[in-house]
């Protein structure tokens, strides 16, 4: 039962938390278990092996923390850095802003490279900083792969290229919260030292697991990093990995079984097919926005996100009213504009276990709401643009061929 009832299904199109598939819900509907029995370590072992696949790493070491993306950030930073360390961080929207705030509160010296909201990371500024840093005082470069507030995706391969060009040893720390398992992400190929995600995004689980993956270099750095850490200390996990029992404290049994089911669904579809599906969902959404005559908050095509689209509304419309109406009238949940873009954009999340027809339902709802709030939209225009693209591009469902 909904806390505030609405008939039919809620159309959940916020960019996380996202829809949980039935298979995952059923897998989690189970009793607690003794996590010290042989069963839970055996299950955990498969999870640790299999999450590496979604990070595309063979050399990385994964950690499953009972936390959210914010806790995973803290784990990445405190295990690899010491107070006072100089780091470079890109501010491109609300989530990169929050990560920078955490970095500053943890006492790192942060060189903030700021962009207009809607633009990607200024990599030329990074290049200049690395070129000037011949003493290697910069200890880490931190970047949000996909900024959820503005729908901007950064090209991580370029960051790696710049680090290599200047032969700079800074650690490369990546927030992949709304990108890993939805967008192309290659931890090993791109030399990412710590990557992290949260269970409520592309994996389509409840909130509650922060997945952090550390490269061998990051593990090495953790041996000398002096930041205070207890709950998020990798060392405690590694100790229990070695013992074969895996958990330094009580895991959520239900979430572990949920993660098993979520990974099974990803592998059943095929990770590359999952990524291709997100590309289709992103492209279809952008075509609808264009057909409505509205602008994407993302300033350049190269930064377009395939997991979230932030739609700019005309100045005479409050985008928060669109979000309110969506929920009150159509049982559709859209994302609010945050901070600098509050009232100016609404967001359509298109990530996780989601298919094209679900998206078309959302787009039909958005059209009606736009009309409700006085925007002159032709009903069906966005749906037509999206569906004619999708009709030409949806492949057979991989597991049904
Ligand atoms: N990073 C990004 C890019 C996000 O979108 C979010 C949440 O939406 C977070 C970090 C924070 O994650 P959490 O809310 O799970 O702590």
UniProtKB/TrEMBL annotation:
Key words of the record: Aminotransferase, Pyridoxal phosphate, Transferase
InterPro entries: Aminotrans_V_dom, Aminotrans_V_PyrdxlP_BS, PyrdxlP-dep_Trfase, PyrdxlP-dep_Trfase_major, PyrdxlP-dep_Trfase_small, SP_NH2Trfase/AEP_transaminase
Residues the record lists as N6-(pyridoxal phosphate)lysine modifications: 201
Gene Ontology CC annotation, any one: peroxisome
Domain Aminotransferase class V residue range list: 16-313
UniProt entry tagged with the keyword Transferase: yes
EC number: 2.6.1.44
Family to which the UniProt record says this protein belongs: Belongs to the class-V pyridoxal-phosphate-dependent aminotransferase family.
Name used for this protein in its record: alanine--glyoxylate transaminase
Organism: Cucumis melo
Gene transcribed to yield this protein: LOC103491481
